[in-house]
């Protein structure tokens, strides 16, 4: 029997349980998706680095088919984003990569891009001001 992956509360949008790929850190995208599906998990997050590696030898449609065949919907894509604490105007390559991540989320029918900011070399009031400016 599949695991219940949606929790419903009267008057609120359903909360979805999703597995994070850290649980299968030693395995690739395809192996993880198949394992999650076999376990009855219906929602997952994905790490871009694993999906990128899969897409080196597969088409995007194959990734989407693998998810569909496994009965899984992706709810967020996860990546390190080196734009949160720096001036985005001075980082055109990183900004382009970020936009590519957003596009891949869209193409995967994934509604959320979850970013992990780069570590700050030195935390100060300006660090938070930069993050606030870049997140707007």
Question: Could you explain how this protein is built, in words?
Answer:
With 136 residues, the protein is an alpha/beta fold. It has helices at 29-38, 48-55, 60-69, 92-107, 125-134; strands spanning 6-7, 15-16, 43-47, 73-81, 113-117. Helix 1 runs parallel beside helix 3. It is globular. The mean pLDDT is 85.
Task: Sum this structure up briefly.
This protein is of the alpha/beta class and 136 residues long. 40% of the residues lie in helices and 17% in strands. The strands form two sheets. A three-stranded parallel sheet has the order 3-4-5. Strands 1-2 form a two-stranded antiparallel sheet.
Fold topology:
Layout: E1 6-7, E2 15-16, H1 29-38, E3 43-47, H2 48-55, H3 60-69, E4 73-81, H4 92-107, E5 113-117, H5 125-134
Parallel strand pairs: 3-4, 4-5
Antiparallel strand pairs: 1-2
Helix pairs in contact: 1-3
Order of helices and strands: EEHEHHEHEH
What is the CA-atom radius of gyration, in angstroms? 17 Å
Low-pLDDT residue intervals, each spanning 5 or more residues:
none
Mean pLDDT: 85
The chain-level structural class is alpha/beta
Per DSSP, what share of the residues sits in E-state strands of 2 or more residues?
Answer: 15-25%
Q: What kind of sheet is the major sheet?
A: 3 strands, parallel
